[in-house]
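Reopening: 2-hydroxyhepta-2,4-diene-1,7-dioate isomerase still failing for me.
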Amino acid sequence: MKIVRFSHNDAIRYGILDDGDLVVLAADPLFAGFDTTGERVPLADVALLAPVIPRSKVVCVGRNYRDHASELGNDVPAEPLLFFKPNTSVIGPGDAIVLPPQSERVDFEGEVAAVIGRIAKNVSADDALDYVFGYTAANDVTARDLQRSDGQWARAKGFDTFCPLGPAIETDFDPTGSARVRTRVNGEERQNGPVSDMIFPLADVIAYASAAFTLLPGDVILTGTPAGVGPLAAGDIVEVDVEGLGILRNTVRASSPV
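Support: Ran it again with your exact input. Result attached.
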């Protein structure tokens, strides 16, 4: 099942994708289930939004693909390397990634994201995926120069627009399977790696994270990026294409003068 959040006739609503139409849901399915209104809206008539706006946090895993750690000259971590993005960094499909004036190097990082569906604290890896509502594509946009100079990653990873999500939440996806994460910039493929190459599988990440802090419904977990990351420039179109999850497409623009 593919679930979207969308704008139509000046209202923000949720729907299930069905043969080019959206079956409109009565409320946010994360909290209210899958009751429908009886309406159907053509997908072509709506504007897709980020499928979830985290009420609490975006939890990210750094260096979770061996080749990506190597391309940046970093050691492979012995345990999941966690960091946060603020929920204000989230944008949806079609929205613009804004290049901040503080950075001279902003990179794309295509990823799989998991949306937590119920409260998770001290869960086991065996049970961890039962706490996932669904999955979507993500772009862990990073000010690479600031990541290196700041000594921690909050600013480099946390600028407004630095967490594109979408286009939909897919409830039926195997985060350990053969699906590939591909990223294209202006139509040219830059990343192509299978989710099975993760050093720490999603279940282990959820268990590790929930041992430290409570995961809440609507929290998002970014699972790491394969090798091939690189810079973005104003005017670029970046696409994160995850098999089974769809294509997350965003434009890139310079920040507006103050």
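Residues 202-210 form the longest helix (9 residues). If you still see a failure, please send the error message rather than a screenshot.
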